[in-house]
Specification:
By secondary structure, the chain is mainly α. Helix 2 runs antiparallel to helix 3. It has a two-stranded antiparallel sheet. The radius of gyration is 26 Å and the shape is elongated. The model has no long low-confidence stretch (mean pLDDT 80). 77% of the residues lie in helices and 6% in strands. It has one domain.
């Protein structure tokens, strides 16, 4: 830990073990969804490469058999339409898993805030696309407790 991190921790009563425990819990919670996202990306790449090789081969065979570039062009246009439909379908599945992981991280951060961090004057928030956890300091200087702070902030 750097000096700034140790100073931050000492002022707010945050112990490094608590933070590591929170990160470990979040990692275990999100692992299935993030794993699906990675697998979907790999499958998308494999499908695009296989379809490209297939269309390339068919285009050459059709061009040689019919001795016309028009038929080869038609095969390439069909390939482009199939690739667009495939990538769109895969992205729908990909987006569903990203939404689920972001929602789970938001619920997890809320539970951890209620359990431990709000009492220390800190707040956990999900980062961009649920890829990290953001820790912010709750400014309770003008408010007697955290509940009134959140009521003023959200209302």
């Amino acid at each position: 830990m750097s000096y700034a991190e140790m100073d931050f921790a000492s002022r707010h009563g945050l112990v490094e073990v608590d933070l590591e425990d929170t990160i470990d819990k979040a990692t275990e919670l999100l692992r299935p969804h993030r794993g699906h996202v990675a697998v979907i990306e790999i499958w998308k790449t494999v499908v695009v490469i296989v379809l490209f090789l297939l269309a390339f081969t068919i285009s050459i065979v059709v061009g040689v058999i019919y001795d016309s570039l028009l038929w080869s062009g038609l095969v390439i246009v069909i390939f482009c339409v199939v690739i667009l439909a495939t990538v769109w379908g895969i992205k729908c599945s990909y987006n569903r898993h990203l939404r689920n992981s972001h929602f789970l991280l938001a619920v997890f951060c809320r539970a951890e805030n209620n359990r431990h961090y709000l009492n220390l004057g800190l707040e956990l928030r999900p980062g961009f696309l649920g890829k990290w956890i953001e820790i912010s300091i709750v400014d309770t200087g003008a408010h007697p407790d955290v509940i009134t702070y959140f009521k003023d902030r959200f209302l």
